[in-house]
TrEMBL record:
Regions that span the bilayer: 28-49, 61-79, 114-132, 144-163, 169-193, 213-235, 241-263, 270-287
InterPro entries assigned to the protein according to its UniProt record, in alphabetical order: EamA_dom, EmrE-like
Keyword Transmembrane: yes
Annotated EamA domain residues: 3-130, 144-286
Descriptive protein name: EamA domain-containing protein
Keywords: Membrane, Transmembrane, Transmembrane helix
Keyword Cytoplasm attached: no
Family: Belongs to the EamA transporter family.
Lineage: Bacteria, Bacillati, Actinomycetota, Actinomycetes, Kitasatosporales
Source organism superkingdom: Bacteria
Length: 288
């Protein structure tokens, strides 16, 4: 079950990243983050009320608050790093955040078997290659590397924190709701600061109407991200964190395949090889 939920996480995160990437071509990244997470807050709030999740309030909800505070910082750092480029280097480096939850699992005494260790190594290598790393070309700015590593650490920290935020299903709904409220608060504050400094909050083409027209896509991105956090939390609670974290970090492969299918982007040889390695690593982790 751990492998199933973790792979579902990769699928959901990969599709959410693909959708978010498309949206940020048409509107400011902060607006995409705040709008998509606001939709998630409304939906999750309704679920929490319907399931009586408010009764599940517990001290570990502070893990959800921490995850909610770290998430927007990680996303914005990643977007900034992508802007500095080159993307072929930045994108796969962002997946190195898997080291955080894997390290937590090892620190807590988890000891994967030989096949699982091999699967971890092969899957991580596959994820890095699936991003299409550029072995030649422009040098990478130090700022881009630092921002990418900050984002990777943030993504990994969110994975580690949200898995500790609840122990029951209704409690998980509440934890995800708290996380999203914090996302909106932190992201909204950053957006306000950006606007006061002269930044744009609305798309140059279409303004607020463009945001309303994109609401279904924004809702998909926000809800897919929420669902991914939920399935990862379940995967980490039901099996080894080291396995769950690596399988959940295969999302760059999903994003690359979505770009191939929807945008007709051709996979480079190194990306195809990375996708194949990721699949081999998945099999090793699932059977180990």
């Amino acid at each position: 079950m751990t492998a199933l939920f973790a792979l579902a996480t990769s699928l959901l995160w990969g599709l959410a990243d693909f959708g978010g990437g498309l949206l940020t071509r048409r509107m400011p990244a902060l607006t995409v983050v705040v709008a998509s997470q606001t939709v998630a807050v409304v939906v999750l709030g309704s679920v929490v009320l319907a399931t009586g999740g408010l009764r599940e309030a517990a001290p570990q909800l502070w893990f959800a608050v921490a995850a909610g505070a770290v998430g927007p910082v990680a996303m914005l750092s990643f977007y900034k790093a992508l802007a500095l480029g080159p993307m072929g280097v930045v994108s796969p480096l962002g997946s190195l955040g898997v080291a955080v939850p894997v390290g937590v699992g090892l620190a807590l005494g988890e000891r994967p078997g030989l096949l699982q260790f091999a699967g971890i190594a092969v899957a991580v290598a596959g994820v890095l290659l699936a991003g299409g790393p550029e072995f030649r070309g422009a040098a990478v700015q130090r700022q881009a590397v630092l921002l990418t590593l900050l984002a990777a650490f943030g993504f990994g920290a969110v994975m580690a924190l949200i898995s500790e935020a609840s122990t029951t299903v209704t409690g998980l709904f509440l934890a995800l709701f708290v996380q999203r409220v914090t996302n909106v608060a932190v992201g909204g504050t950053a957006l306000l600061v950006s606007v006061r400094r002269g930044g744009a909050a609305l798309p140059a083409d279409g303004g607020s109407r463009a945001v309303w027209l994109a609401l279904p896509a924004l809702a998909f991105v926000g809800l897919a991200d929420v669902a991914a956090n939920g399935t990862y939390a379940i995967a980490a609670q039901r099996g080894p964190v080291t396995v769950a974290a690596v399988l959940a970090s295969l999302y760059p492969v999903v994003t690359a395949l979505a770009a191939r299918g929807v945008l007709k982007e051709r996979l480079r040889t190194v990306q195809a090889a990375g996708a194949g390695l990721a699949l081999v690593g998945t099999v090793l982790l699932a059977t180990g």
